[in-house]
Amino acid sequence: MLTTLTDSLTRKKFAFFRWRYNLATTQKIALAFGMAVLTGLMAQVRIPLPFTPVPITGQTFAVLLAGVMLGKNWGGISMVVYAGLGVIGLPWFTGFGGGPAILFGPTGGYIFGFILAALFIGHISDRYIKARKFVPMFLLMLIANFILIHGTGLVQLAFWLSLVKGSSPTFHEVLAMGTVPFIAGDLIKVVTASVIVRGIIPREDFR
After folding, report:
1. How many domains are contained in the chain?
2. Between the CA of residue 161 and those of 34, 51, 157, 165, what are the distances in Å?
3. Mind listing the pLDDT tens digit for each residue in 88-121?
C-alpha cells in the first residue's frame, strides 16, 4: 500500500514538472505573475528593526521556491515581474510600498538579488538531477541567499548610506546592518524551502 502511494506521488510530481516545462509562453507568463504575487504577499510579512533600514521579511522564501517551481529563466522572470510592477507603482513591496524610489533605496539591492537568485536556482534545479537532493539544494540555496541576494543588497546599502546619508560605513558596519540580523531567519527559510523542494521535485529528467 505504501509503495503504491509512493509510486503514485512520484508519477504526479513528474507529471506536474513535465507539464510546467512544456507550457506555452503565455501560460508560463501567467505562472510567473502568480509567483510574483506570492512574493508580494510574503513581502508584507515584515518586522522592522530599529538599528537598520532593512526589515525582516518573508520574501526570500518565495524567491527560493520560484526558481524550483518555475525553472530555468522563468523563476528569474517572475522576480523581474515583481520588481517591474513594483517600480511602476503596484504597492506590493515591503510595507505595501511601490515606486522607483524603493528600488533605488536601502533595500533595492536585495530585490535585484532576487532576480539573480531565482535564475540561479532555476537553472541548476532544472539542469542537474543530482542537485535535487536535500543537501545539494540546501547548499545552493545558501549560495543564492547569502551571496546573490545579500551580496547585491549589501552593495546597494553601502552606496545608499554613503550617498544619501553621507556616512562612510565600514564593511563590518554594513554587514551588521544588512546581513547579521537576518542569518537565523534566513537559515530557517533556506531549510524549509530545501525540505519542500526535496518533497516536490522529481528525481528524473522531465525536460
Report:
1. 1
2. 34, 13, 6, 5
3. 999 999 989 999 999 999 999 999 999 999 999 9
